[in-house]
UniProtKB/TrEMBL annotation:
Family: Belongs to the peptidase M20A family. LysK subfamily.
Higher taxonomy: Bacteria, Thermotogati, Deinococcota, Deinococci, Thermales
Cofactor details (free text): Binds 2 Zn(2+) or Co(2+) ions per subunit.
Protein name, entry field: [LysW]-lysine hydrolase
Cytoplasm keyword on record: yes
Residues annotated for Zn(2+) 2 binding in this entry: 91, 125, 326
Annotated organism of origin: Thermus oshimai JL-2
CDD domains: M20_ArgE_LysK
Keywords linked to the UniProt accession: Amino-acid biosynthesis, Cobalt, Cytoplasm, Hydrolase, Lysine biosynthesis, Metal-binding, Zinc
C-alpha cells in the first residue's frame, strides 16, 4: 500500500489517542507497527517495546529514531483550526510519524541506495532511555536523525547534558528551640550553595553554555527519634561541563553529613554544521520553501544517549514548537507537520545521491 493510501494526519491522531507514558508504550507501538505494515514497510515490536520499521535495501544505513513515550498528563485529542492537539503531538509522536511517512514515500531509486531503519523508542522521558539503549549495539548507521521538535525549518545540532542528583540528610531529632540547623535546613543551605556556584559559572555565557538547575522535589519526613529530609534536583550541563566534572564540584560543596546520589548522567553533544546529512536537510527545507536555521537545545534527548555509540553525522529534526513540550496546550500545526514529512523525504532522497 502506498503512503498516499493512509492519511498522515488521521494516523497521527490515532497515535495521540493511545496514552503512552514512559513504561506503557506497548499499545501505541503495536498501533504504529500495524500502520507501518499498511504502508508497505517491514515492521515489528522489539524486546524493548520499540516500534521498529525498515524500508530499502541499499548500502547507506540511515536511522530515524523518535520516542513514542510521553510525560504523564492527558491533553484532549482534537483537531481545531488546523491544529492537532494531544499529548505527544510535538514531543515526540508527531516527529516520529513524520519520519514514518517520509520513509514510506521514498522513490524506488532511493530504496536501492538506502536502508532506512525506523525506531519509535521507549522511555526517553525517563532516565532509563530504554529504547535507545536497546538499539545502540544492534544498528550500525551511517547517518542518524533524532525525531524531536525543531520546527520544520530548524536543524538541531546539539543538546546539553544532564545530571540528576538526590540528596539526603538524617540526624538525631532535637527540640526546635535548639540552636542548630535541622535536616531540612541543611539541605536548603546546600542547594543555595549549588545555585550560587551555577550562577557564577554562567556569568557571560549564552544560554546553551550555561548550567541550568531545577529543584524537582523536596521532602521532610515526620520526626520521632530521627529527622529525615530529602531533595531531588536536575542539572542541565553545557559541553564544557561533562557529568563527571559536575559531580566533582557538587561533591566538593557538600558537607560530609549529606548523602549524595548521582544518576541520569548524559554527556553533552554538539555536532558539526557541514556534513552530508545537514546538507541534505538544508536542501529539503529549501525545496519545501523554507529557510534552514541551526539550533542548539538546552534540554536532552536520545541524541545524548546515542552519540557516544554512533560516531556518525547526527542531528535532531521534527515538526513542532518545542516550547509546547509537556504543556497542557501541546499541539502541532497540521501544515507544519506535513512540511516536516516533505522535508524528511527530500532529505532522504538527497542522501541517496551522496
Amino acid at each position: 500500500m502506498s503512503a498516499s493510501a493512509v492519511d498522515p494526519v488521521e494516523f497521527l491522531k490515532g497515535a495521540l489517542e493511545i496514552p503512552s507514558p514512559s513504561g506503557e508504550e506497548r499499545l501505541v507501538a503495536e498501533y504504529l507497527v500495524e500502520g507501518m505494515q499498511r504502508l508497505g514497510l517491514e515492521a515489528f515490536v522489539d524486546e524493548a517495546d520499540n516500534a521498529r520499521g525498515r524500508v530499502g535495501e541499499g548500502p547507506i544505513q540511515v536511522v530515524l529514531l523518535g520516542h513514542i513515550d510521553t510525560v504523564p498528563g492527558a491533553v484532549p485529542v482534537r483537531l481545531v483550526d488546523g491544529k492537532l492537539f494531544g499529548r505527544g503531538a510535538v514531543d515526540a509522536k508527531g516527529p516520529f510519524v513524520a519520519m514514518v511517512f517520509a520513509a514510506a514515500g521514498l522513490s524506488e531509486a532511493a530504496r536501492k541506495r538506502l536502508t532506512v531503519h525506523l525506531v519509535g523508542a521507549t522511555e526517553e522521558e525517563a532516565p532509563s532511555s530504554k529504547g535507545a539503549r536497546f538499539v545502540a549495539p544492534r544498528l550500525t548507521p551511517d547517518y542518524v536523525v533524532i525525531g524531536e521538535p525543531s520546527g520544520w525549518e530548524g536543524i538541531t545540532l546539539g543538546y546539553k547534558g544532564r545530571l540528576l542528583v538526590r540528596v539526603r540528610r538524617e540526624k538525631d531529632h532535637f527540640h526546635s528551640a535548639h540552636h542548630e540547623p535541622n535536616a531540612a535546613e541543611e539541605l536548603i543551605s546546600y542547594f543555595v550553595a549549588i545555585k550560587a556556584w551555577a550562577e557564577a559559572m554562567n556569568v557571560g555565557q549564552r544560554p546553551f553554555d550555561q548550567v541550568q538547575y531545577t529543584l524537582r522535589d523536596f521532602r521532610v519526613y515526620p520526626a520521632e527519634l530521627k529527622q529525615k529530609a530529602e531533595m531531588f534536583f536536575d542539572l542541565r550541563l553545557p559541553p564544557r561541563l561533562p557529568p563527571e566534572e559536575a559531580i566533582r564540584h557538587l561533591t566538593a560543596y557538600a558537607p560530609p553529613t549529606l548523602e549524595l546520589e548521582f544518576f541520569g548522567r548524559e554527556v553533552p553533544y554538539v555536532g558539526p554544521k557541514d556534513t552530508p546529512l545537514t546538507r541534505a536537510l538544508r536542501q529539503g527545507i529549501r525545496r519545501a520553501g523554507g529557510r534552514p536555521v541551526f539550533k542548539y537545545k538546552t534540554g536532552t534527548s536520545d541524541m545524548n544517549v546515542l552519540a557516544p555509540h554512533w560516531k556518525v553525522p547526527m542531528v535532531a529534526y521534527g515538526p513542532g514548537d518545542s516550547t509546547l513540550d509537556h504543556t497542557p496546550h501541546e499541539h502541532v500545526e497540521v501544515e507544519e507537520f506535513l512540511k516536516g514529512v516533505q522535508v524528511l523525504r527530500e532529505a532522504l532522497e538527497a542522501l541517496a545521491q551522496v
